From TrEMBL:
Source species of the chain: Arthrobacter hankyongi
Protein name per UniProt: Fibronectin type III domain-containing protein
Stretch forming the signal peptide: 1-32
Any single Pfam family the record assigns to this protein: CHB_HEX_C_1
Gene3D superfamilies xref list: Immunoglobulins
Annotated segments matching region Disordered: 373-405
PROSITE patterns: FN3
Domain Fibronectin type-III as annotated: residue spans: 278-380, 477-571
Biased amino acid composition, Low complexity: 373-385, 394-405
Keywords for the protein's UniProt record, in alphabetical order: Carbohydrate metabolism, Glycosidase, Hydrolase, Polysaccharide degradation, Repeat, Signal
Length: 669
């Protein structure tokens, strides 16, 4: 038996993927639908999850064309781990996240990370009118390379206890199969014994040797076709879905692709939890020495990704742009994790270089922060001794003594570095270790000596030193902030206020309880430079008072603002609807989950406008403990004379703790 692709690492084949559409593939039985997850979209709408590539395809929702929607990935016990905003196109594919032509994770939201989507994660689409639909990522995936024995190919995988095995399919995709007896770009195995494919060329079966495994078997009419299938670059897929309707449309679809890597699906997207971020460009710089045989490289450390391995160091490389024999000379250094600069020596003065800085996390290396110095004059041109310009605004006082200014602006035809801590700005003929790259006006918050140096790419420099002090008024504490307002949330209150003077360097929020006692511990972080802050951990329905005060670097905090009063909303639990089925005169049954064991859930009819209507008599039950990974389950069953005379149509479920799920369409047995 030949084991295919032995010894190869994971494959990344993003550009070869052809986007799928529920509407376009329904006829081929790709999107056949059912009814097993809370608010699973109904055909032609769908939320399709590709967990191995952290990619989501939103399909349909044409009734929301032109509206913005938010995609949220929620993990039980952790909350939202990723989100993105985009506009519904009105076509079959409404939009995609983390796929070429789509938007990145973090687009229009505050979660600037590509989530590592895993089984059990809930991917929801939400609209401004409060409606939402979701897919729960299924626990079914191919676990190893396919094997071939003559005309037979076998694919094995894992299937979790929450997956409906009747709603699974395994596929192998290779467009080269179109020109064979298969006459299609993929081969498929569905649950059951070995049966011939409709178009011929092979027979297939999908079996479950044990409770948590599956095995797909393909027997081809000839060995050549088997070889083409075995050479598939797109790998092996396990497909499972939550809902299948009478027309065979598959809803709540998960497509697990063996061998694909997660993380950013296109350039510019944020790194994922397993991919350490690259160093930041904000204060990155490259400066040549005067003789052009060395360069100083500076960077701003990478911002750690949530859940990622810590940065263990940085790799810095100067890559010659000249290509000789298909190769480029590379010179470089590796530093420890707390480094922010290094010097690379041994450069060829007649060569041009591109600089790449990457963060290291153990054996992993980030994407590169790339800088191309592009000298103003050819590095090999001798005699360039013209100093760069350096202008300071406001200009230093002619009579000596400190110049009064709230900020100082520097400009040059080269790169500018500065210090304000009393240290030198130049060491040798390069910026000193403490010199910072100038990117914006320098705030003057107290008496300070400003040292600045401008460097051109020929290594020439010009130096400035002067004393500055803030206006006298800035030495006083800032006035109390104005415009403070409060917006209640569940167990929280979000505060916003107007901007203070330019000299303000931070704000502090204070919480007062009903007795007037300050509770600073409720506020995290204790200080902020933003003009908004959310106070969490509050008791729902209880009134609190809030103030904010501002500080500057010279005088500290000033007076508190006027108090505003707000009461946090009561924190509700979370309920879902899994199934809802009605059979005339026989049974009406609703199942689902709840996040609080012991809560009572009640079923309500939905009104014609999609709001909660009247309760259905007798349709309630308590949430009972469930085995991991769930928290609680409920099962409401009405029989015989208790069954509603007609199918209730759409329903809501509401918990005694306030959680609501719906509207959800009741199926007829």
């Amino acid at each position: 038996m030949e084991h295919l692709k032995a010894g190869q690492g994971p494959r990344r084949t993003r550009t070869a993927l052809i986007a799928v559409s529920a509407a376009s593939l329904a006829a081929t039985s790709l999107f056949a639908a059912q009814s097993a997850s809370a608010a699973v979209p109904s055909f032609p709408d769908n939320v399709v999850v590709f967990p191995d590539r952290d990619f989501v395809s939103i399909e349909g929702f044409a009734e929301h064309a032109g509206e913005k929607a938010v995609i949220e990935v929620t993990r039980p016990g952790q909350g939202v781990i990723g989100s993105a905003e985009s506009t519904i196109s009105g076509t079959d594919v409404a939009f995609e996240v983390n796929h070429p032509g789509g938007v990145c994770w973090g687009n229009g939201t505050t979660h600037k990370v590509t989530p590592d989507i895993r089984p059990g994660d809930v991917v929801a689409i939400k609209f401004s009118d409060g409606t939402s639909q979701e897919t729960t990522t299924a626990d079914a995936a191919v676990t190893g390379d396919m094997t071939r024995n003559g005309n037979t190919i076998t694919v094995s995988g894992h299937v979790g206890p929450t997956v409906n095995k009747a709603q699974m399919e395994q596929r192998i995709i290779n467009p080269d199969l179109v020109d064979t007896a298969v006459a299609k770009r993929d081969i498929r195995a569905v649950p059951g014994p070995l049966v011939p494919a409709a178009k011929g060329g092979y027979s297939s079966s999908l079996e479950f040797p044990s409770a948590d495994t599956f095995r797909a078997t393909y027997v081809f009419d000839d060995a050549a076709t088997a070889g083409i299938a075995a050479a598939a670059d797109l790998g092996e897929r396990a497909m499972s879905w939550q809902v299948e309707d009478a027309d065979g449309n598959r809803q709540g679809l998960t497509i697990a692709e063996y061998g694909e890597l997660g993380g950013p699906g296109m350039g510019g997207c944020p790194a994922g939890p397993g991919d350490q971020a690259a160093p930041q460009a904000g204060a990155a710089s490259v400066v040549y020495s005067a003789d052009k045989t060395s360069m100083q490289v500076k960077w701003t450390p990478a911002v750690p990704q949530a859940g990622a391995a810590v940065v263990t160091g940085y790799s810095i490389a100067a890559i010659a742009q000249t290509v000789t024999g298909g190769q480029q000379v590379q010179l470089g250094m590796r530093t420890e994790a707390n480094a922010t600069q290094t010097t690379i020596s041994g450069l060829d003065p007649a060569e041009k270089y591109t600089v790449e800085v990457r963060s290291l996390a153990g054996a992993r290396m980030s994407e590169a922060l790339t800088m191309a110095p592009a000298p103003a004059t050819d590095p090999g041109t001798p005699g360039d001794t013209v100093q760069p310009t350096l202008e300071i605004s406001p200009a230093p006082a002619a009579a000596g003594g400190p110049t009064t200014a709230e900020s100082v602006t520097l400009s040059s035809d080269g790169q500018i570095f500065f210090t304000t801590d009393g240290s030198p700005v130049v060491s040798g003929n390069l910026p000193s270790d403490t010199a910072q790259l100038y990117t914006k006006p320098i705030a003057i918050t107290g008496p300070v000596t400003l040292r600045a140096a401008a460097f051109d790419q020929a290594g020439n420099s010009r130096i400035f030193e002067g004393d500055f002090a803030p206006p006298a008024a800035q030495l006083e504490p800032p006035a109390a902030p104005t415009g403070l307002n409060a917006t209640p949330g569940q167990g929280s209150v979000t505060l916003r206020w107007d901007a203070g003077a330019a000299s303000v360097t931070g704000y502090q929020v204070t919480v007062y309880n009903a007795a007037g006692t300050a509770q600073v511990a409720n506020v995290q972080p204790a200080e902020t430079t933003a003009r908004t802050q959310t106070v969490t951990g509050l008791t729902g329905g209880t009134g609190y008072q809030f103030t904010v005060k501002a500080k500057n670097a010279a005088a500290g905090y000033g007076a508190e603002s006027a108090k505003v009063t707000a009461a946090a909303q009561v924190v509700t639990d979370r309920v879902t609807i899994g199934t809802a089925r009605w059979k005339a005169g026989s049974e009406f049954r609703i199942t689902g989950t709840g996040s609080v064991v012991g809560a009572t859930v009640t079923v309500y009819r939905a009104t014609s406008t999609g709001t909660i209507g009247t309760a259905i008599t007798g349709a309630n039950a308590a949430v009972v403990a469930a085995a991991p990974p769930g928290i609680g389950d409920y099962d409401i069953r009405l029989r015989n004379g208790s069954v509603p005379a007609t199918n209730p149509g759409r329903i809501f479920v509401k918990s005694s703790n306030g959680g609501v799920a719906g509207p959800f369409t009741v199926s007829t047995k």
